[in-house]
Amino acid sequence: MALLSVGFPQTLFPSCFSRLTSSSLQSLNSLSLPKTPFSHLISNPPFTNQRAPLSNFHSFSNDAVNDHYHLLHLSVRYGDVDLIKAVHDSIFKLTEDIHLGNALIVAYLKLGLVLNAYKVFVGLSCPNVVCGDFFCRMRSSAVCIRLLDLELGFQLHAIVIKMGFLDNTFVSNALMGLYGKCGCLDTMLQLFDEMPQRDIASWNTVISSVVKELMYEREFELFHEMRRMDGFGIDHFTLSTILVAATEGLAPMVGREIHAHGIKIGLESSLRVNNALIRFYTKCGTIKHVVALFEKMYVRDVITWTEMITAYMAFGFTDLSLEVFEKMLEMNSISYNAIL
């Protein structure tokens, strides 16, 4: 009832709490709710490592569960960290509901609260039905990598093996991404080699990680292996990443092969691929190649123009570099550095 007594502006959240039942209102009523604006509605509950399992609490009605789903949705929609933590405390009074626990995990992750999500995850009595979004977001979170280094990755990997999720392509891709960001290339490659089924994200993850570690020959091998697979599509990210390797590894034959393959599969109009090609021909080709590419591009961005400035400067055409610079509608610090 305390929630309904708070005066919300009519223009904001006009029906936010209209679907709450008396049972969930009672469960939330125990929280101290100051009469403040929505973003500070609920006090920040302490979050400790010693949470009791969800299954220790009494059962509430399905309406109460639905109300918690609704509140989680609101907390994510309006970025309200205080609300989600208050809902979390209230959820612990319900009989464990795996799907509700999953929703809580995903809500925490969408708000960037990775550690909170992980603590909920490990507290579930049956985490095997938690969706792969958890693993994907753990991969993309730089926070968990900085704070826990590889510890969290190893723990998640162990849980995945225990739950039998290692054959899930989505989950394996997430683990590879996590290992790639942590610099554990051997572990990532072993995981990749053991995957029973791969998709384009699997290949792009391992290829980009290998390029980041300057292992260009291994990257070329992966690309040729990828091409040999019948019916497997290669996208603009794959080609642009391989072109980086061809450029930095001074591999003109590979770069030209990538260019030809891009034309063959219809990616010659990709802005990302063309920018990478301009960079490649600047280092491994001639100014004629660069100009021909630039003139065929219907769409150009600040990267395109900056690459052209760099190309003209590299081939000694200072006047043309200044001419391109003056035509730019948008510039950044790299553009200025290129002209200096």
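^ that was protein a. below is b, sequence first then the tokens
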Amino acid sequence: MGSFPHVVEDCVGVLQVLSDGTIFRSKNIQFNMPVIDEKSVHFKDAMFDKDHNLQLRLYKPTLASFAGNNYKLPIFIFIHGGGFCLGSRMWPSCHNSCLRLASGLNALVVAPDYRLAPEDRLPAAMEDAASAMKWLQGQALSGNNSHAWLNSGSEVDFEQVFVLGDSSGGNIAHHLAVRFGAGSTELAPVRVRGYVLFAPFFGGVIRTKSEEGPSEALLNLEILDRFWRLSMPIGETRDHPLANPFGPWSPRLEAVTLDPILVIVGGNELLKDRAEDYARRLKDMGKKIEYVEFEGREHGFFNYDPYSEAANQTLQVIRKFMSDNSS
């Protein structure tokens, strides 16, 4: 008789893969944070990809927060993290962050879901993020037939769009930047002005010093490796182009024109060295890129406490980045 199926991959009990290939996702997740009640922001959901049943959540500041009658809201696309395997627009860490971004930046925030691994391995997540960008373009082209909050661009500015990716979302944001290039002409009349990467989840076969430790309170090398095993195409390594932007098979970026990029990372993050190396290499290529490190902070310092002093400082950095790249 064969043995009963047993757990071979376990992502903190939220996602488990059994020896017979069965995938179990918990429907009763106990989140260690409350959902913030932000009175100054309204939010609602919308479908953006019927084929894959993918929705996004829109966050809009109330009229009281507008700077003036002629003010148009910039648009932030927020791509959540979770190692390509976990996460949703509805998780408190994502929802609270988007509320804070909408109120703190006085922007319309668009938070799309994407297909998760291992059910849908990469590049599914990248494809879904690009689909969300195309949805936004469709809204800009639809005029009076668009979503009410995006109607005719009367309250939003489709020429002032920024993409913010957290962790694995930061990796996705990088691939969007490469795909659409400087000026994002493929998305016209949508104009992406810049990309913000929170501790982008990049990998590589050769370990970095920060990856070797010490571990963080909520993250360790074992978890990172598990995410890669579950999300990469079967048989691929961490040097795959979707994981390592500078791997042996990755496309050369010297000739690629990119919109401005801002990289923000905590000084105690396992992913710090890869983020710093990414920024340094792109800067050496002549790309417009900024690197900001928050000393002593660990992974998710903005998401897990978006109203902290460090989060307030993060918003200041983003505001300056927006101001510097709005024209």
